[in-house]
Amino acid sequence: MITTKTILQPEVLEAVVVRFVGDSGDGMQLTGTQFTDTSAMFGNDIATFPNYPSEIRAPQGSLYGVSGFQVHIGSVEVSTPGDNVDLLVAMNPAALKTNLYAVKPGHTIIVDTDSFTKKNLDKALYLTNPLEDGSLENYRVIQVDMTSMTKEALKDVEGLDNKSITRSKNMFSLGMVYWMYNRSLEHSIDFFNKKFKGKQHLIEANTKVLNAGYYFAETLELIPNAYTISPAKMVPGTYRIIGGNTATAWGLLAAAEKSGLELFLGSYPITPATDILHELVKHKHFGVKAFQAEDEIAGVTSAIGAAFAGDLAITTTSGPGLALKGEAIGLAMMVELPLVIINVQRGGPSTGLPTKTEQSDLLQAMYGRNGESPVIVIAASTPANCFNFAYEAARLALEHMTPVILLTDGYIANGSAPWKIRSIAEMPEIKNHKVTEIKENWSPYDRDEKTLARNWAVPGTPGMEHRVGGLEKDRVTGNISYEPKNHEEMTHIRAEKVRLVENNIPELKTEFAESGDLLVIGWGGTYGSLHSAVKQIRDEGYKNIGFAHFNYINPMPKNTEEILSKYKKIIVCELNGGQFASILRNRFSKFEFSQHNKIQGLPFSNDELIQQFKLLV
Amino acid sequence: METTTAVKKYTFKDFTSDQEVRWCPGCDDYVVLRSMQKALPEMGVNKEDVVFISGIGCSSRFPYYMSTYGMHTIHGRAPGIASGVKLANPNLSVWIMTGDGDSMAIGGNHFIHLLRRNIDLNMVVFNNEIYGLTKGQFSPTSLIGQKTKSSPYGNTQPPFSPGELALGANARFFARIGGNNPKDMTQIFIDAHKFKGTSLIEILQNCVIFNDGCFDDVTDKEVKEDKQLFLEHGKPMIFGKNKDKGLVLNKLKLEVVTIGENGITQEDILVHNAKEEDKTLHQMLVRLEYPLATGIIRSFADVTLEEREDALTAQVKANSKFKKTDDLFFSGETYEVK
């Protein structure tokens, strides 16, 4: 058992941002995750974001092979992984070079000096050693011979090869950071015992190195004091740390269980959506049928087939894949089958920036099909609420017999945060329109009065045999019809069906000022950035700013116009060229909408938002 | 959904929908429709368990004329939709109705992957070597030199042979039949239904408007017996009006011989083994131009995708501690906030 001793009384901080960076093979994701989990169990609020190269194993020491993991922990509400970092742990020169920009001046950098060899400096394109040339004067640099000390710590452990020894140095850095932030080693030691069960030498090695780092930080005067971050005030309950893509997958699992339907996923691998496929394919124990198709089109068409046959049908993708699926989504809309399409947005157009975030598929989701082809469009806004909105996408698809596009993005999909676990018992009911009893004069296009959703008679049900298809159909019988008036009427019915969804979704809520000078509008994955910026500007004394974040885009909440009318100015902030702003202008032409847009593959920073808001108040 | 009740008795009328059939008069598609309606009552399957899925093209109107479940989908994508239907409910008898353009041009990728996977469903390709519904352009099975609306000076693109493409993609069941032969077509549909795995049936379908007579040299009643070798599993490869022609293997080639000439007896003629895993001979038969091989060329029983998936699912279910999502959500690294 480790006891926490500190030389001085720890300084209390509200929140800190720590970034671990190193070579792809240095284990930075693991180090970051361990620090995250330990801090979460301590009771901090958390937001994380991983950043790894798109190359699978980039050459060692190269600038483009740097892998990172950023975590923001707080005793107060934390809504983003943070912009600038308080502590950077850099395992080699390339990692230092590519991440130095993010370190707040005067703050701390821990480096492994053993990795600052001539060869590694050359690879990082350093002409002189930054540890010696004075270029880091504005920072507090802690130089540690991490590799040597790891070797030293492990000299008595038997059965370790050289590679295993060098690879444990990430645990040395983790030990140091644990000491700096007054964290217990217990969780990580438990983790080693589980992960390396039966491999006693690896448990011993990792524990030893972790301890070595911890005691090194404690005993050396290089670190004058430690920090502590108190537990945050969070709603009581059972929590876990969850990533956005996992939360999305789990929301679908929950929806399948609640609705009593089997889950079918038709998908094709594409960054950054593939992890949803990876997650769902694990859950055969729940009867999940995950089908990796030959392409994006077969992914969505197999899901349409499964929907026709009565499953809760899903397809997952990212921007280019959504483009390929367009025609098939139009078919699902035309035959009025429930289908969930999840688009984890990335930088576009074309192949664009596969590993970076953007919100530029909104108009594609709204209109990216031939003909008058309305579908429900909703968006998740945090890693944890991907669970709720995946569930909601399934609920709306089933209750309204129509495709639903759920937009998430690379930022929330790969980020993680605490999730107060939702038991299936507390999730809302999910109805569906399956028909099992033969009715007289039955037609597949008989509609529910309230929602206009049609019947769902699935193959295998006697007496309900019918044909559907992409051709226009008679309003009553569902048979092919080219009759002009009928086509117009059916077009209106399909539009009205989507509009009526507004009766089945919550109203738009505002945060901070309920009326006033400025309304900040966002949608989807920018919630955290916008929320923290509005909060900060309010704390600075600008009290008349309100914030409205949209999760429901088509249709919009019923009270949208009422909310818009309560503020003097409106600014719509998006990670695209202004797509939601154009939808709002089109729908609510009497208001004036300012825009703040960013198309860099990056989330908003607090500073840029605050600067923008100040111009308007 | 397991059916426990006995299968109902049907006649072809039970499978006829109330929709007026809108193919051109004289089209072979009528033959396929009637053959299917006659085959279904013989399959021992309930009507509600039959699903027809089609893409786009003349042949893809097929589901509207059947009184079963059906979906007329989008161009080339019927295999994906049918795969989803079958994987969602393996109890269904699923049929893809498609043409040469729908299956091998725009849907070519799905075509080969469907055959590779071996899901237990059936695909009927109406091959008329032309685009009908778009009014007469060359298709991926049109011949070199063929004059069409999009090749007025003659087609320059070499064609696919559907059978060769299918066997290359590891089709386990491949049959070929003339569009004017309802009797054998009906039986092939029944056999395809009984076969566990993906069955592919190529219909040599005459298009009376845009490619009339394209198969006359082999399907015409006058020449059919001399030009076609109708294959039956376990029977010698004999053809001809007088049943005196047969196939033998000469080095690496199939050769046509006459029984009674040059000392050839019936004993020398190759015997058709459709169930053989090794597809070498099936490929040679598929390529043969004279005689043209018809009937069931290959019928190799292999494990289906559903069987593999079911076995895995049963194994995972038996070994998993997760019965409900709550078991998963509350497992592992959770913590309490008080």
Question: Care to give the gist of this entry?
Answer:
Chain A is of the alpha/beta class.
Question: What does this molecule look like?
Answer:
The complex is a heterodimer of chains A (617) and B (338). Chain A is of the alpha/beta class and 617 residues long. Chain A has three domains: 219 residues, 3-Layer(aba) Sandwich (Pyruvate-ferredoxin Oxidoreductase, domain 3), CATH 3.40.920; 187 residues, Rossmann fold; 107 residues, Rossmann fold, CATH 3.40.50.920. Chain A has 20 helices and 23 strands. In chain A, strand 10, helix 10 and strand 11 form a beta-alpha-beta unit. In chain A, helix 7 runs antiparallel to helix 8 and helix 9 packs across helix 10. Chain A is globular. The N terminus of chain A is likely disordered. In chain B, helix 1 packs across helix 6. Chain B is of the alpha/beta class. Chain B has eleven helices and twelve strands. Chain B is globular, with a radius of gyration of 23 Å. In chain B, strand 5, helix 6 and strand 6 form a beta-alpha-beta unit. In chain B, the strands form two sheets. Chain B has an eight-stranded mixed beta sheet with strand order 2-1-3-4-6-5-11-7, sandwiched between helices. Chain B has a domain of 213 residues: Thiamin diphosphate (ThDP)-binding fold, Pyr/PP domains (Rossmann fold, 3-Layer(aba) Sandwich), CATH 3.40.50.970. Classes of the chains: A alpha/beta (617), B alpha/beta (338). Strand 9 of chain A pairs antiparallel with strand 12 of chain B, so a sheet runs across the interface.
List keywords for this structure.
heterodimer, A: 617 residues, alpha/beta, Pyruvate-ferredoxin Oxidoreductase, domain 3, Rossmann fold, 23 strands, 35% helix, B: 338 residues, 8-stranded mixed beta sheet, 3-stranded antiparallel beta sheet, 28% helix, globular
